[in-house]
Amino acid sequence: MRRGRTADAGVEVVVVGSGRTYGWAVVATVTTILVAITSVPATPTGPAEAVGPAPGRGAYGVTAAQGSSRAYGVTAAQGSSRAYGVTAAQGSSRTHGASTAQSPSRAYGASTPHSPSRSYPVSVELASLTPAVIRQGGELRISGRVTNTSGRRLGPAHIGVRIGAAGAIDTRGGLSTVARRTPLTRADGPEVAGRAARLAALPTGAERGFRLTVPVPDLELDDAGAYALTVNVVREGGAGAGTVLGLTRTHLSAYPDATRLEPLRTTVLWPVLDAPRMEALTLRTQDSVLPVFRDDELTAAFGPGGRLRRLVEMGKGKPVTWVLDPDLIVQARAMAAGYRVARTPGDSDPQEATEGEGGETAADWLAALRAAVRGREVIALPFADPDLASLARGGGAPLTGLLRGASRTGRSVVDRALGVHARTGVGWPAGGELDDGIARYAKELGLDTVLASGAGVASEGELVSEGATDDGAVSLEGGTTALRYDAAIAAQLFASHPAAGAAGEPARLLLRQRLLAETLTAARELPYARRELVMVPPRRMSLAVARVLLTVVAEGRKAGWLEPAGFAAALRKPTAGRLRGFDGYPLARHASELPPARLAAVVRDRRRMRALAKVLSDARATAASVRAALARSVATAWRADQSGAASYQQGVSRYLTASIASVRLVPKSMVVVAGGSATIPVTVDNGLQQDLTGVELRVLSSRPERLNARDRAMPVRASRAVSRTVRIRVKAYANGPVRLTAQLYTTADGLPWGAPMTFTADVRSAPSGAVIFVLGGTALIVLAAAFRPRRARRR
Q: How many Å is the Cα radius of gyration of the chain?
């Protein structure tokens, strides 16, 4: 006997016991043969897939009577039969090409009319599925909600569960096939018999929760592996009985206790990264130099509940490899020591910046990070995590020295701040895409190891041909080691953006089940081979994705098909390999690259920074802040924020422009020179926040025979934010106006600084001796010009 209890939507359905009787099997078989000879039952149709004419059944074109038999071409009576091409009545039967009257059974083999593009009138979302991995016996508990998204009232229905007809999915491509499948097909398998929840009529827009409890033996999972799990809503009663109103799919992983697969040695990267916030701009005080930040968003990220704080808390004590950007450590330390926040991002006036409020929060975050990484593997990426692909393709060679220097400084910052010995020399191209150009540029930056998607790098002895599962280190030509990571898992992590809280439960559940299925299927590909699996999440990993990733690793480890491994272990004994036969960097990613024009602007700004450093009394601090800002201008993080990238780079340019323009000559129109010797005042305005040195002033005359400067060059020194008047000695020879040009030059290399300033000197009361001397000189010039043609003719 089978005892059961069904309920309307929102009420748990628990079925206790599942007896099977076979007494009616013979009667059912004989009866069905006679019926089949004389009639063929029709399959009802409707606006959605029709799975049977009777309410609550998962059969195709059959009627099942109560029975416990498996019937092929027969009528099944009371029980738990499987019927193929039969009429099944009340029971717990599996029917192939059949319709059932009283049983939510499994059905195979029937052709169901459907349109792949058609949407269902009821949406189905799963909120929970426990256990995440089926081990041995017990129950599978499913909860979720259904919503009537149609414009009409829908009659009574039931919610059932189906396991894929093909059993365990053997390939990872098969997992994708299940995820892409839209309408209900025979591949979804029949409903699990007797495990449905009844759903009352749904008004338009109505939403109701549901719970299903299915004993694991009823699922009939044959072996370890990932199975397709479908939860569907099927209409009951009326002309459209058996019509599918809605469904959702996920994957169900089973790993019986007796399973003995060789576990995958799994390396999980844990990136703690963010977009650059600190600008080149600084505010000098009497006691310190305060950095200026574009905004104060890091305060929230570092604070309780913030993304960066929670990532540190979640990763502490877990078997992960920490991936850090030294620039984030630099910014946190700068905040802890005191900082300012720009009025608007890219503002070039430090006086407009306000005091930052996240100093204590940043200090607390650094302390938490220091505790979390103690004794763990830490990777320090190049400073500001430069976009290797953009630099390799956009002509970033002039920036190589800048980036290498910044990375050397960054590693020392990480080691001192966190008390670790971080691994360096690791590059991470955007999307893990790698080609010859990117590999060469990484090598130029001193990066011997590159994280690369397994889809673009192949080893000579690949265990799984052209498969992304065969991870591990590969030695490429040129001395670069590519650590391949799993492309399929990375794609799932990168594409998933589940919301926080209850709203994100369905997406988080689907991601968890898919990742469990991916890793288990990877382990089953070569069940007795010792292999690597490298899991790489997005750079700015969300908390939801982080939580799912940790859950998957914990569940796979508990079951036995995953075994945590470190980054160093994954790099051991790299195999010889090659880039695949196509360009490893897809064209679709070019749109998010930093444009060559912006890279050229960064190169130009670097030259201007060098020029600015030559005129400063304390060039070291300013040059360091500008160099760091230039490195941030080419960060990979800007791929997700093109407008922010342009704004940041333009802000650095505006800062340099304003700094260079702040050292200038104060314009004047005319001076009067009285007498043969005099001094002409020229004012130099120093708008910098530090003393001005390394500059000299030169004045040139357009009429040196009337007025000439006696001082070839005058050094200029001016305190910060003040103007300095330099007096140039001149000698006058004749009265009248003379145009003079004043120009600043750097003393280090004699190059002009800023724009020249032209003014007029009106010479008055020049001494007569000087006038006679000038006239005599003029006469000599005239005579020389007159005699020159005659001498030429004589020759």
A: 39
